[in-house]
Amino acid sequence: MKKMLTKQPSTPVLCSECPGWVCYAEKVVGDVSIPFMSEIKSPQQIQGNLIKTQANRKLFQADPDQEAPEKVVHICVMPCYDKKLEAVRPAGVINNINDIADEKLGVEVDAVIATHELADLFQKRGIDIKQLLEEEKKEESKIIQNFEKDIC
């Protein structure tokens, strides 16, 4: 325990993609867990950052000096409500292209909808997912094709 508290190189690094676990660790066992928690952003936050910077630049040929990540809307479809909590945490704020912390340009994730909420929405709107999937198999979306050409 003493070795862990002095942050020796062999100490564990605690990480989780589950925002519920992170919240639990902070609130219940914070004094023990926080010193060992990874500071790496979640995949959801990293994706938002990439979409609002790299993909924005590639897809819209944005000049790095003219970029406006706050104009790009990043919506995540996630299996858990806790991902909504993760999206509004302060760690979800991105900085400008020079990474100057005091010039915030926006959040990495603008909205999160749970998968079952999306399914309910489709059902209420009379959207047949199976039919859409069949249509998608016949011909890929031009947006996806352009994205693959530019990014890959």
Task: Write a short abstract of this structure.
By secondary structure, this protein is mainly alpha-helical. It has helices at about 1-5, 20-30, 30-35, 45-60, 80-90, 115-125, 130-140, 140-150; strands at about 75-80, 95, 105, 110-115.
Helical segment tally? 8
Number-wise, the strands total: 4
Q: Kindly report the CATH topology of the largest domain.
A: Rossmann fold
Q: Could you name the ranges where pLDDT drops below 50 across 5 or more consecutive residues?
A: 95-104
Helix/strand-derived category reads: mainly alpha
First and last CA, distance: 46 Å
Q: What's the arrangement of strands in the largest beta sheet?
A: 1-4
CATH class of the largest domain: Alpha Beta
Query: What percentage of residues falls in helices of 4 or more residues?
Result: 40-55%
Oligomer designation: single chain
Largest sheet: 2 strands, parallel
